Amino acid sequence: MTRRTLDDWTKLIEQQAQSGLSILAFCRQHLIPTSNFYKYRHKIEHLNQTSGFVKAKVATKVTTQPADATIHIVFGDTRLTLPHHCEPTWLAELIKALHA
Predict the structure, then answer these.
(1) 97 and 61 in a common domain
(2) 40: domain range?
(3) For 27-65, what is each residue's pLDDT tens digit?
(4) Is 1 inside a domain boundary?
(5) What is the pLDDT of residues 2-17, one digit of tens each?
(6) Using alpha carbons only, what angle is made at residue 98 by residues 74 and 82, rounded to the nearest 5 degrees?
């Protein structure tokens, strides 16, 4: 038996919704444990509700970058300070890694 990916579960959940069958009947027909169906349905719904964006606000307006300018990122109790000249792609990868 192969392990289903999250994409596989998304397709199965969509199929069930379009099938007109109850979850129990659909799961029996496809030999899927109903507990797994509910678990992945909840997980997918949660992923779809979670936004990948964080609201940011400008603390001060600076027209020129002084030599000691820094970027301050605050998320909950976590504080990160970076130099202003760090690469945007590196910063994006860092945020993506921290979100994972």
Answers:
(1) yes
(2) 6-49
(3) 999 999 999 999 999 988 887 776 666 677 777 766 666
(4) no
(5) 789 999 999 999 999 9
(6) 50
Distance of CA 11 to the CA centre of its chain: 18
CA dihedral for 88, 89, 94, 96, sign (positive or negative): positive
**E-only strand ranges, 1-100:** 70-75, 78-83
By C-alpha distance, which of 55, 86, 53 is closest to 70?
86
Based on the fold, state whether residues 59 and 100 are members of the same structural domain: yes
Reading the block at residue 37, the tokens are 């169906």
The whole model's pTM is what? 0.48
Number of domains in the chain: 2
Residue 30 lies in a domain: yes
Shared domain for 62 and 98, answered yes or no, is yes
Token pair of 93 as six digits: 């990868």
